[in-house]
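Field reference: sequence -> structure
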Amino acid sequence: MEFLSLLFLLVTGIHWLNTQGQRKRTALLAEQLRPYQIEKHMEQLTSAYMRALGETDPERQQQILQLQEAAEQQLANEFQNLAREFAKLPAPVTRAFKVALPYIDQLSPKACFDMRRILEVHAQGIALAVSNPQGLSPKERSFRMMGEMFLMQHSCHWFCKSKTIASARMLAQHQTRYEQALAAVSPETREAYLDVVQA
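Structure field:
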């Protein structure tokens, strides 16, 4: 009975510490995002891409996608600015846990990833998808952009909460599994991303 009481206290303590850490990381990211309209641009682009991909008329599809060019450029620019500003923050507050255990970063730095590096990876990935140097077709480019945006959103939720919660949110919001988003991004993004989260 004493063992069960100690176990209950331990689990309760870990949960409380996790919740405190999540609140701090969520507040930090919200503060950094405040000057930008990144979420607004993502919502607009996702909606437009889905509408365009559902179009049977290629000319109408092209028209919808061309109308998104300004929002795509704004998203790329704003995200690069976010990554640049976030990079100025000190290391301890920018660490996200690969496993949701409080203070694990102090026991093993390999149990964490640095959100500064992840944001830099996503900023480069989004900019690359917008500039489209590979010459992807409009349909392929739309899929690539959605993959880049969804994986970036997943990283933000992972930083604030956990990988499990981030994956569940992406599935609920976009009907997209983590593995699907990872497969949809550019090879450059995928390689750089995995270097950070699997290091």
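Note: The first strand starts at residue 95 and ends at 97.
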